[in-house]
Write a structure and sequence with these properties.
With 463 residues, the protein is α+β, with helices and mostly antiparallel strands. The protein contains 19 helices and 13 strands. The longest helix is centred in the middle third of the chain and has 26 residues. Keywords: Heme, Iron, Metal-binding, Monooxygenase, Oxidoreductase.
Length: 463
């Protein structure tokens, strides 16, 4: 298949003066991005005065993600993120990527994921410990605390206090959500004394100070089962031990990548499940058979295939990392269009994960489309929630494990129902795809769900 000529190109209609298509992205990103494949396989849009090319066909998307030399991490989103977070694994250009990937890969091997599973179990138990029938909570903030606490303890080990975790959580939340301003609004607005800009500046100062203190403490008293302990023994590209700045950058990378996205995925997951009684019932049947009312453990994961399919389907329908950018490093031709060096490419999983010619009834929540016999028939590049190629998210299995354990543990004892005031429309000016408002009400699935392990106890008494 010739990527340069065998596909179609189009210019998206509806661009507004000065702002281009940015208002459409802010108002309803799912609808706008999902509509682009109806115009062509590669579609040109405008973000302010700048053109951006959007791949809308699985093969083009895959090509751009796999050829990460030509389509390097760049554009306004990454430029600003590097200013805030540094050139860590997820943000560095191609020239620095290979060394960092090799240095960090051991942290995400099978043995370490199993060890992180124990941390996840503890944090999930802490999240649900206070739940009682009728309890209601804001979904995303609760799941954000869960994922941030898990990530902090994975990075810093048992030495990470609740106070330190809270300080970092609050600032990282402001920083990551504010990055969309740099992508969607004209550059001139970033110099204005807007509240969002002031919050970004203050959050950055708090965040860097907190992270520097944690890294310094870890150098004095390292905790063995932690990412930083691994990095303290690693070498930089110059063959020397990592500096404190480099340690901080890598810690920041995993914290920023492993909090908002996992929390958003869990938020959408319970919203989608609440709208599909069949999927809810199948999920509950599986966790009842495997868990008998107890929390899920890492060792249970092979027995929870439907639960994992629920996670995957939620990521297909509502990918938290809904947009990221690339910048071309060489002249290249895609779908008959010549992209000069420095061209901006806007990549979104939504453009291919909602195509009706790839996924039958794409707006239907259907976890069984991920049964092996169905998933194997999908074209390459049709699922990109974790990106693809050499720069695929290094923590993809970490995130899948955390989401699966959380979903299984909750479903084994509770049913979470969105409150009537829930607003499922995507939040504006957010780098992570989120519903605008979502409160969940807790309903026990079993009469004695207020006490841990009671379903298992009841079952044993019946025997």
């Amino acid at each position: 298949m010739d990527i340069s000529t065998e596909f179609t190109h189009a210019i998206a209609p509806g661009a507004l003066p000065v702002l281009g298509h940015a208002p459409h992205l802010m108002r309803d990103p799912l609808k706008f991005l999902g509509s682009l494949s109806g115009h062509g396989d590669l579609v040109t849009i405008r973000l302010g005065p700048r053109r951006a090319y959007v791949p809308c066909h699985p093969e083009i998307l895959r090509h751009m993600l796999v050829d990460y030399r030509t389509f390097d991490k760049g554009g306004p989103l990454y430029e600003r993120a590097r200013e805030v977070f540094g050139e860590s694994l997820g943000l560095c250009p191609h020239a620095r990527h290979r060394h960092q990937r090799r240095m960090l890969q051991p942290a995400f091997g099978a043995d370490n994921i199993a060890a992180y599973g124990a941390i996840m179990e503890q944090q999930i138990t802490a999240l649900t410990a206070s739940w009682r029938g009728g309890h209601a909570f804001e979904a995303f903030p609760a799941f954000f605390r869960l994922s941030a606490n898990t990530a902090m303890r994975m990075i810093f080990g048992a030495g990470c206090t609740d106070e330190a975790a809270t300080a970092v959580q609050q600032s990282i939340a402001t920083l990551t959500r504010g990055l969309a301003v740099d992508l969607l609004l004209p550059k001139v607005t970033q110099r204005l004394p807007l509240p969002v800009i002031r919050r970004q500046t203050k959050a950055r100062e708090t965040f860097l100070t907190s992270m520097d203190r944690l890294v310094a403490e870890h150098r004095v008293r390292p905790h063995p089962a932690s990412l930083l302990a691994l990095l303290l023994d690693a070498q930089g590209e110059d063959g020397r031990p990592l500096t404190s700045d480099q340690l901080r950058e890598q810690a920041i990378a995993f914290l920023s990548a492993g909090t908002d996205t996992t929390a958003a995925a869990l938020t959408w997951m319970f919203l989608l499940l609440a709208g599909n009684a069949t999927a809810q019932r199948q999920l509950e049947d599986e966790v009842d058979r495997v868990l008998h009312g107890r929390p899920a453990r890492f060792a249970d994961l092979p027995e929870l295939p439907y639960t994992r399919r629920v996670v995957t389907e939620a990521l297909r329908m509502r990918p938290p990392g809904w947009v990221f950018t690339r910048a071309t490093t060489a002249r290249t031709t895609i779908a008959g269009q010549v992209l000069e060096p420095g061209s901006l490419v806007l990549i979104s999983p939504c453009t291919v994960q909602h195509r009706p010619d790839v996924y039958a009834q794409p707006e239907e929540f259907s976890p069984d489309r991920w049964l092996p016999e169905h998933a194997s028939a999908l074209p390459r590049g049709s699922f990109a929630a974790f990106s693809n190629g050499g720069r695929k998210c290094i923590g993809d299995e970490f995130a899948m494990t955390e989401a699966t354990l959380t979903l299984a543990t909750v479903a084994s004892r509770w049913r979470l129902t969105p409150e009537p005031q829930t607003d499922p429309r995507p939040k504006t000016l957010a780098t992570t795809l989120l519903p605008r408002r979502m409160r969940l009400r807790v309903t026990p699935r079993h009469e004695s769900s207020t006490e841990p392990g009671t379903l298992a106890d009841t079952n044993s008494k019946r025997k």
